[in-house]
Amino acid sequence: MKLLLSIVIIAALVAVPLWLSDPYLLNALITTGIFVIGAMSLNLLLGFTGQLSLGHIAFFGIGAYVSALTSLGFDVALPFGLRVVHEPWPPLAGFAIAVLVSALCGYLVGRLSFRVRGAYFVIVTISFAEVVRLVALNWVELTQGPLALTSIPPMQVSFPGIGEFTFRTKLHNYYLVLGIAVLCYLLIARLVHSHVGRAMRGLMENETLAVSIGIDVTKTLTLAAVVSAGICGAAGSLYAHYMKIIDPEIFTFINTVTMVIMVITGGKGTLAGPVVGGLIFGLMPVALRPVMAPEAQWIAYGSALIVILFIMPRGIVPAIMQWFPRMKPVTAPSFAKRGVEESA
């Protein structure tokens, strides 16, 4: 049943460009899809480990800048008279490096910040995002600062013996974002249903019990941070090559809040939650723009958020699954339940 439903949903998304000819709406779907990927990466931390990161947009921005600079090339002076000159590389190489650098940053942040919990962890992540924003804003020689990086080349893939394919049009980018989103969804699903995913859920449900049976807290949470940051960096890379321009405004706090809203309203701890929440709150401003003034749009946006959370406190996906008992949400197995079964 779940497999059939997944195939139907993917087929429906693949068919969207066949009947949607409005480039404005297609652009909205592409940008929404990119932020859905970011929300899925945040859900891996918030939904499956219980760690709230309010600086997650830092990895998105790092992925965007790394991919853009790799593709554009740069020439910067360093201390002690050193100078680094980088010639432009293909955008696909920029995408790969963006994922690796974002994952490395996730590792560093995880190793440093997972020694604390609660509000302290939130403060660390916010501080990290602000530091990265200030670097992007003030290192003008590398990032162009507020002037922005422009003329970023579109994503390009080379096929040996066939040639190169460039994702120039909105249609091309729609299918590119959809394909990356599906791959990220499958990767997260595989991780969540592995023994590592059960360890993550165990730490969220009962950290003391998890530690008592030998689960390494820092190692498990750091792995989640690495995967989450890498996926978010991939989303940032897609954003840079699609928009072809980026500036430090990409690090604004509202972008992190948007991802958190997508996760919470869709249903944290469920694989489909960020997708459902992302589509609703990503496309809602587009639907409201023709009929409401900008101020009224924000009021309607906030009101919808309050109503959804009031009626469905656990999120949309868990509520739907509760209404239809035969359909269980795709989540990691309960750590406590598994522990009881294994002890029996």
From TrEMBL:
Its main location: membrane. This is Branched-chain amino acid ABC transporter permease. CDD domains: TM_PBP1_LivM_like. Pfam families: BPD_transp_2 (PF02653). The keyword Zinc does not apply. It comes from Rhodopseudomonas telluris. Keywords: Cell membrane, Membrane, Transmembrane, Transmembrane helix. InterPro entries: ABC_transp_permease, LivM-like. It comes from the Bacteria. It is found in: Cell membrane. The chain crosses the membrane at residues 25-46, 58-80, 92-110, 119-140, 174-192, 221-239, 298-317. It is a multi-pass membrane protein.
